[in-house]
Amino acid sequence: MSALPVASVFRNLSDESSNGCKHLVPPIKDLTFIRSYQTCLRLALSYKNKHNFVKLSKNEEFAVEYLDEKKKKILLKESNVIVNVPTLMCSTCGNCCDRLLACIQCVFIGCHGKHFTEHQFKSGHLFSVELNYLNVFCFKCKDYIYDLDLERALDMENLRMDSLISFAKDPSCKRVKYNKWHPSSQEMEMIRKKGKALPCSGLRGLRNLGSTCFMNSVLQTLIHNQPFRSHFLSDRHNRNLCSLKHCMACETDKLFSMIYDGSKTPYSPTTFLHSIWCSQSHLAGYSEKDAHEFFISLLNEVHNNCGGLHNSSECQCIVHQVFGGLLQSEVTCNNCGNVSTAFDPILDISLDVKALGAKNPTLYDCFQKFTSPEKLGVNDYICTPCGKSNQEASKQLSIKNLPSVLISIQRFEHSTAQTTKIEIPIVVPLELDLTPFTSQSIYSAKTDSKKIKIKFNKNGSKVSSPLRVNKFLPSEILDGIPSFKYVLFGVVNHTGKMDTGHYTSNIYTRDEWFLFDDHNISVTTEKEVSNGNHYLLFYIKKTLEYSPTTAVENTIVPTQSESETED
């Protein structure tokens, strides 16, 4: 492994303020620490990207026939190592949860919370890497730290992995050498003299171009979606370099540029509308459209235009990074107890608001119903262990992987005859904890013998009843399970009927709630937002994991109690 220079070009080692924290100054002077950090990064990146090398390992001769012998040996050696990387799991309990930490000083891997904390207290080691998002955590600071030398090492490892993946996909393609731009003294002087700071408000209305309120309301939620905004404002998709016709990623890039150029007059998204008409013909015309249908169609187009993979569970495009999740479906045979598990990728969660029995239903009630067991009739399920015979069974949904931005709830019921709107008021919380509805929480509760009942069939086999999820699950069941807390940042509202109604949106920005009604913008209140005519709800994780390579920002929207605690 090639070593990094101890002193970075960005700072002097004596300058402690340039370190991620004061505790990092002694370790980062040691090459062993940097090499250990590189090992953690290489392990995490290899495991995350090993699916890209499976094809190469199965057909190595064809894949590398264009390479010279030296490159061929290097590529085959690297790819075989990556393909054979074992599943990452906690060294203590063997748990393969999403939040695994690796100790930089000894490369111990442990699950977030109990086991890694125990290791830290026993060893006295201070620094860890979160293997999913590659963030560095200091236990003395009790916070994530960002050091320029460590970020430089991360950039180098990302570049190395991208190069290997590129070789694996197309060995004959020539690579352009990547060089960061470092302005010269003359260029810096020109920037100081000629450069001008532009105000970036982001509060800009959109003109109605003829029954396009459905589009305007959805676009405002994307404009103020922090990870989505960071992606396009950091030039991850440059419309000036793209050759695709009617590219919605280019139109989205242009939209962000126009909204954040400092102008305060309403903007007319005419080219955006024209491109979506050309790429999605069912949305063409000046009749009122469904905001949810437009939203999903737009995401699919951006996914395709950004080179998204057909297998959405492996896709790393901006759409699936921000909105992609995974549902888990378990079908349990009531006769033999056999459990069949299936996984479905999602971009949103559609909740049933019609069949709620509560008098004043809340969004928690919707998720409660969504993850509750559903009885399947004899004709709905065939059990293979029971001799491929029809059996009664129960089906239960849970959320396997939660997205960074969650979209839920719908109010239109579609049938062959007509589309009707469901006018049931739903109490929407400004904060949402989805931990009890995750697959890991439900599985933990099922395996706790004190929390479930055991049934016996006529043949004496045990059958575990599907768990009915409750948001007040005992803390001992949820112990060790990562918390998935979300805050509401955007709402698409709908008033009136499907064909003649009107869409507006509420957006939380600058510590205030705003109402966007096409080109009109006004301040609103939390109460009005919570009790509005909700159609689509946009929740974002309360703390987004930061990654300098994907430009995902941290965001915390504190409650009143949290603000008081911090003070």
Keywords:
single chain, 567 residues, alpha+beta, Herpes Virus-1, Cathepsin B, Chain A, 3 domains, seven-stranded antiparallel β-sheet, five-stranded antiparallel β-sheet, 19 helices, disordered C terminus
Describe this structure in words.
GO terms for molecular function: cysteine-type deubiquitinase activity; zinc ion binding. It catalyses: Thiol-dependent hydrolysis of ester, thioester, amide, peptide and isopeptide bonds formed by the C-terminal Gly of ubiquitin (a 76-residue protein attached to proteins as an intracellular targeting signal). This is Ubiquitin carboxyl-terminal hydrolase. The protein has 567 residues and is an alpha+beta fold. It folds into three domains: 154 residues, 2-Layer Sandwich (Herpes Virus-1); 187 residues, Cysteine proteinases (Cathepsin B, Chain A); 127 residues, Cysteine proteinases (Cathepsin B, Chain A, Alpha-Beta Complex). The protein is built from 19 helices and 22 strands. The strands form six sheets. Strands 12, 15, 18, 19, 20, 21 and 22 form a seven-stranded antiparallel β-sheet that branches. Strands 2-1-3-4-5 form a five-stranded antiparallel β-sheet, sandwiched between helices. α9 crosses α13 and α11 packs antiparallel against α12. It is globular. The N terminus and C terminus are likely disordered.
Helical content band: 25-40%
Q: Tell me the number of strands.
A: 22
What is the CATH first-level class name of the largest domain?
Alpha Beta
Seen as an oligomer or otherwise, the chain set is single chain
Level-2 CATH architecture of the largest domain: Alpha-Beta Complex
